[in-house]
Amino acid sequence: MIKKITVSWLLIGSLLLAQRVTDIRFEGLSLLSPATAKNIAKIRIGENITKEKINNSIKNFFAQGYFKNVWVDQDKGTLIYHFKEKVAIANVDIKGYGSEDEGKKLLAGIWLKKGDLYDARHVKQAKQAIITKLNKKGYYDSVVDVSISPVGKSSVSIIFNVNKGSKIFIKKINFIGAKKLSKSDLESKTVNKEEEVFSWIPWRNSGKAVVDQLPYDSYRVKNVYMQNGYIDAKVSKPLMRVDFGSYNAKIDYEITEGVQYHVGTVTISHNIKGLDINKLENSLSLIKGKIFNVKRMRKDIKFLEDKVGNVGYAYVKVLPKMQKDIKNKVINIEYVIQPGEAVTINDVIISGNDTTKDRVIRRYIYLTPGDKFNAKDLKDSKNALGRTGFFEKVDIKTKRISKDKINLLVKVKETATGSISVGGGYGSYEGLMLNASVSDKNIFGSGINTALGFELSKISKNYNFSFSNPKVWDSMYSLSMDFYKKNYEYTDYTQDQVGGDIMFGREFYRYFHASTGIGYVDNKSTVNDSSIYENGIFYNDKYKKLSFFGTLNYDTTDDYYLPREGMKANINFEYGKLSGNDYNSTLYPGGYGDMSKISAKVGFYYGLEDLIDYDLILRLKGRYSKINSNDNEKLPIAERLFTGGAGSIRGFDSYSLSPYFIDPKNGKRNLIGGTDKSSISLEASIPLSEAAKMRLAFFYDYGKISTDRHDSSDSAIVDNITRSSTGVVLEWRSGFGPINLIFAKPLDDKPGDKTAKFEFSMGSKF
Known about the structure:
CATH topology of the largest domain: Porin
Radius of gyration: 36 Å
Distance between the termini: 89 Å
Shape: globular
CATH architecture of the largest domain: Beta Barrel
Oligomer: single chain
Number of domains: 6
Structural class: mainly beta
Number of helices: 12
CATH superfamily of the largest domain: membrane protein fhac: a member of the omp85/tpsb transporter family
Number of strands: 38
Strand content: 35-45%
């Protein structure tokens, strides 16, 4: 007689207890092999059959998550396990929500996909996840129905039918009881904001409600008060009232402000050797007599944590003890430092790099297994990875694995490094200008930078190819090569060049990189109008140049595209030997000879968000170049200096500014190039739209170019030119790379100057 046993089965007869297992069979099982099933059952041939063993084996099978039902039959000493397996999901789809791509985005991250086993609980969770996503997108009263249909005998299809409801738009926000702080100050930090005029513009507030963020907005408002000294302020939960006819809403906050406190005494207490309390206290941002600001207090805590972290304490805690003096309306603060245990690095674990190889990332991490933890090294590692331009986001965290050892968890979010870049502008002289390049800063995830590009206009045709490996064989050494062909038709002459260079370099002291190399140029310049000067002193230059280069770079910035802190500088030196045929050497009996050139750039970047609670970035940039040659040797026009355009003085055509002479025959201005030039730029960048990654930068440019060479005694030479300009730049970090739209106004242009009030470029700028 066959006895049936299920999971609810409680009693087994005495006869069964006397049986031994002689065989185990499995019926209806396809998801597991018999050998695996026997291991899960944990019942062996020869063992006594007991109800506890069978019940436990059934529970073990249910725990695998593969089965809807499991039961056991016994035929004497043979146990027969029967399985009813769960069906698989053949397809997951969504209907009623936009395009196919939009539907896929909504389904992403709901933890339900094709090939999974069907589980009603998981489907319910997925449904709720979709509703939550719709709420975040501003849709209210969204309805999601689930339809499940069989596909064959062992699969099902799941379709989520979405009625996304209506969006709520916030027409009014009331901060009831707010008198000391303005509405704009309070609303600036909330996620839910009033709808603004022209709300369709990306950087204007649309007024769209984000319902799941409402509970947190009251904390954000409270934080604004805490940043302005009102530490006793109370902010109620927001009350949103919705008109379901129009789906317009109003939000009310009840606020009790309290009194404003200033900073009293600020002290630090610790027992760590080597820390100078006086030096630390002088570096704190909370200053006695100033309005208390909780954000600055948090900044001080982070500062102290970093200082203690530099001596090996990764898990230091800085506890601020605050004592209110209600009578004098001041807060006395004592920072108590609890260092914990000093730790060393056990391992560095990297994630998020689908393209970039692990070894490339490790090049820029200054902490390795066995090193003592150092907070500065940790920050420098994060900044170094940010400067590569390979990643949109870099995060490095620590994970404690023992009392004195930690792992570094390096998580990166890669950005597009391979791109087709396009830029250009329009000028009265060059007409429509177009430049394009195919490049990859991180080709095949190797860290190698390659580029192939061109520049075209009605007067120019330039082509270039470059290759750069900043870490040859993961070492401190670099190698770069550059090849180019330039053809530029100036007003009076045409320059035709073919050249290239190769550079070898090495990194020093973390922030410095030095390189040296050689270059070769074959130049042919021809006069467009031979009647200008029959002797061709200035323009008929056909020569070859062999150059020797030396460069030094310094970079402490925190990001490749948008630095908010640090300094970037470089200095370049070139020594060139020129040879060739000079069409007229009356003034220069020495012909072509030696020349030297030095150029330098420096940029300072400072973000003010910590100080003024607004993402304002200040930039100061300077550039300088000087070229020398012997007095009795000719300096070709192609080697001289010109300025104007993006990267120097915006608002003027590229390379359109230089010393010039006035042709005595026709009064025409003829550029002769300079031997000394400099420029300075002041910029202030503010956010327009964080979602669209757009910013607006206001700038002022000032530049000067001059020459110490008078190549014709018959000419009226203007040998010193100064110009300035101002304007705005729309900075957009698009999916195709950074795009800059430049709107410039020259402030002191002169008759004959070639101005360009609009330019655009794609790619990084110094």
